[in-house]
Structure formats: C-alpha cells, structure tokens
Specification:
Blueprint: E1 31-37, H1 54-62, E2 64-70, H2 76-85, H3 99-105, H4 116-122, E3 126-131, E4 160-162, H5 171-175, E5 194-197, H6 205-221, E6 227-233, E7 240-243, H7 244-247, H8 269-272, H9 277-280, H10 297-328, E8 334-340, E9 345-346, E10 352-353, H11 359-362, E11 366-369, E12 377-384, H12 388-395, H13 410-414, E13 425-429, E14 432-437, E15 440-447, E16 450-457, H14 475-487
Parallel strand pairs: 1-6, 1-8, 2-12, 3-4, 3-6, 5-7
Antiparallel strand pairs: 2-11, 8-11, 9-10, 13-14, 14-15, 15-16
Helix pairs in contact: 2-3, 6-10
Length: 504
Amino acid sequence: MKTFYSLPLSLAALPCIAEQPAGKSVQERPNVLFICIDDLRRDLGCYGGPALTPHLDSLAAEGSLFFHHYVQVPTSGASRASMLTGRLPRTQGDTGNGACEQRIAFRKERKGPESLFHHLRNNGYHTVAIGKISHSADGYVYGYNAQPGTQREMPESWDELISCPGRWGTGWNAFFGYSDGTNRQSRNNQVKPYECAPCDDEGLPDGIIARTAVEKLKALAAGRQPFCLAIGFYKPHLPFNAPEKYWKLYDEERISLSPAPDVPQDCYPQLTLHNSHEFGAYRKGDEVLSLRQKASDAYARKLRHAYFACVSYTDAQVGKVLQSLRESGLAENTVIVVWGDHGWHLGDQGVWGKHTLYETALNSTLIIKAPGGAKGISNRRIVSSVDLYPTLTGLCGLPAPKGLDGKSLESLLRQPDDPSWHDVAYSYFGRGISVRVPGYRLSRYRDKEGWRDLLFRYQENDGRYEKENLAGKQPEKVSELLPLWEKGNLMNARQPHDGRRKLP
C-alpha cells in the first residue's frame, strides 16, 4: 500500500490542553520551566536505555515521553537557533554554530519576537536564563579563549541573564572545565576527553548551575508574575567529566558496545560521516580514533561509561531543580520541558561525535509535562524541535507568531494517536538534507556530480541504527519520498532539481 505524507508546517497553534477562559489574567497563566541538556542521546532509563536516570524517568512518568523527536541540525548553535525561532534552516549559515548570532543576535530584520522566550516576555512573563540556552555557554557572544563582552546572543529575550562560571571564570571555560579549575583552552587541548572527578556535585559547573537555579526558583515563587526559567546544563557534552560517585553507578565491564560500530554499506562516508574531529580536540585521549581506526573494545567501554556517568550526573542536577519546584507549590501550574539539542555517536557508524544526518545524531530526548496533560505517555509519533515554539505558546494561552515552521504538540499530549498528525521531520547539515518518516529516512547530499541518495529503513526489532544504504535497492521508495524531501529543501527551494543536476 502506498503511503502519503504531508509537510508538518502550520501557522496556527492547536487549542491548549487546559483552555484559557476568556479574559484570563496574566497572573493565572502557567509558569514555564525549560531545561536544555547538551548532547543528550535517547539513552535514558525511561527510553529503555542503559543510563541510570531516576529523576528524568519520574518526570516522563508524569507527562509525555517522545521517542521520535528530531532536531533540525546536529550541532548545538544551529539546533538551538531553530528551536528558539521555530524556523527551519534557510541558508548554509543556519546550519553552523554561528546560527544564533546570525539569526538572533545580529539579525537585520527586527519584525516580530527574536525567540520563543522573547515572545513570552512580550506577553507578561518574567524570563530568566541560567547556563547554556543559545549557543554560548553563558548567553554572551565571545570566543572560546576570549573574555565575555556585553553583546547578548539573545538581546531581547531575558529579563535576567545569570552567569555562574564559578572558579573557571567564564562560561566557556566552565563549559570545557575540569575539577581542578582548569579547562581545555588553558591546557592547550592537552587533556583527556573524560574525568572521573574526585569532587562533589558542585565541584563541576553543572552542580553550580543547579544550585543557582534552585535559588532563583525560590525567588520566582515568591512573586505574582508568571515566569519562564530556562536552564542549560553542559553535560553530557565533552569532556565527559563527572563526579566519581556517578562513575561508580556503572560496571564498566558490563557496558555494551555499539550495535552498529561499522561504516554503513554504500553510504558515501566522505560526505556523510567524519573522523570524530571534535573528539580529536582532546589530545590526551587513550587512542587516536577515526573512521579507519576504531576504538578498542576496552576504550569504547570507558568512553561510553564516561558518557553515561555524565548523563546520571545531569539527571541528579535536574532532580534538584524539580524538587525545588515541587517544594515551591508551583509544580502543578508549570509547563516542564526537557530538551536535548541533538544526539551523539558513541562509536556508532565508526563516529565519536555529532555532525551527521544519521539517526543517532538527530534523535534526542524530549519530555513534556503540562498542566492537565495525560500522564505516562510514551509517544512514538515523529516530531521536531521547531514544534516546541507553537507548543509552548499554546500551552501558555498565547497566539503563535506568524511564519513558524512547526506545529503545536498539544494534541499529542492529549491524544498520542491523533490521526491528523503528520509524521515528518526535516534535518540539515553541511551539504545534506534529510527527511524522516515512519520506517524510513531519505537523506540527500550534494557534491560536484550532483545529489547522492541515502535511504535507510528502521524496523522495531532491528533498532534504529543505519547499516546499509538501500537507495540502490529500493529506487521506488526514493521516488515516493522525493517530493516530500523537496518540500524541505528550503535552502534551494526556487531551484528544484531532478537529482542529477550539476551544482554551481
């Protein structure tokens, strides 16, 4: 049976879960707690993954857990820019880490709100940011080795932008920090990509971010104005540094290796994969890794162990924030979102890093708990990060601005099997554009010869890892999905191609 798909773009939000009565005051609107977690794969316990995450698991049991949430770009700055603006990439610049600067900080057009959080602020919310929400580790535009200036990455979004770098001195130093107060930059990259840190939670930056967030929540709870508190945790981003007690949660010898450690067949690796360049910046690693030089089993287990320890450490910090929210008495009138900005290859397809259009890099954590929403929903519909903007505006009883590319997830919070939902997600990186639909992903990459097609099939009993490009074996499926892919080809929308067109 032939399956038809349509583009999930909508300018109007669906009715919110708890419909706002006419004339409902600003003070009666729900609060928003938005938690960003960097490089968070879908490895949580609630997903059936190996990471020990009791606090996030508990939150998922109280709300909706999205199994097939896809980011628009598998790199931090661009992924966050799309989520913050509710817009798919239109230019190559929209797919790089400078996207927040380009699309928000230095945007040429000032029509409409600069971000989701600016829209909330314009509508009576007191907005606070702690940690990494946009690309910058503390919300200011500056280089890794520079001192922060005064230019905010999101100039109009925050009533309060709180930086808490601790003894590391700057946000970027803290982001790449080690427990002795040094960082990757100060040590000229002569560092290991992991640390079993001999310290308590606040001996690393995320513990300080959690403490600061708890203190701010207490202050916000005492006010009458609805608030939006956005918290951005650094881990499990490299370096994989976590206090020793979180390492001790795992038996390294029992940690499983990637089920798909090899480069997929016929996948054009020079276009679609990379030699773990971000990981290679940590020059004291136990081994030098690349597509041709895979990690030994022992080193792969150590790195996966380190990553899971970081996930458990971050889970504990989220738990502190959630406990503070409960103690404030505001939990039942607060929309809670936990969002991972992209996934991360842990040796999958031979890669240690993100920056690919493969499932592992594009699929990330999404948990939403909303007042009046159903509990314990394991949602397997295909959704996108750009859907969060209209979702939150709707849940807060606000109209969505014009021109958003996402669709509100509100109906899925009530009815996971909503027959009107369109299961389509677009992702972009480098020279590639990818469309994900139930059971398949079609990715197309351009080189000097034209477009290269990659088709992957996903089956419930075979995991979500790509092992073989099926484009040559299933040309009819490629042809079926090509018109849908073209709808997402926004960077080249005025110049449709036939798949073999020469590129300038």
